[in-house]
Amino acid sequence: MAREIINPRWGNEEKTHIVAGFKYDNGTIINASITNSGDAEGNPDWAEIMQKFGVEGVDKNSESALEDHQSRKQQRQEQMIIDVDRRKKEALFNAKAEAFDIDLVKNSKNRDVKNKIRRASSITEVLVYTSMLHMMEDPLANPVNDRMDDPSTSVVDHQDKDYTSNTTSTSNT
Prior knowledge:
By secondary structure, the chain is an alpha+beta fold. It has 2 domains: 3-75, no CATH class; 102-160, no CATH class. It has helices at residues 44-52, 54-101, 103-106, 111-119, 123-137, 143-149, and strands at residues 3-10, 17-24, 29-35. Strands 1-2-3 form a 3-stranded antiparallel sheet.
């Protein structure tokens, strides 16, 4: 079965190793690793490549293959950066959506803090502003505010207090 040698390139810097494709009549392409054994007979594939392409042709193919490899590597790195950025943006969007799924945030009249959640540029900001809104609007979340009203009480005194009936709301209208 006849074959054609395609795209031979150096496999090492010493130029003692060639990597090439062998394309057969039936369309099959096999990658071959070819070395010159250095004995009197030598490698017939090596001799055929040197006769057909010469050192200059293999050099040219090697440079082209290296440029292609570097280009693909650069594209993969750029795509990876784009993917990481996209995943960060998706995570931020999902964090904001989850924050607004909380009834306390959804029903809040505090537009300033809700806008800060919408405009947050990191998940940490979303969490901070959501927690801040929660502490401002839910007396169970912040019993310290009740204690400030009556400095003579301790935190222990607040454990028996029913906070569900006290629904104070901070509104900036």
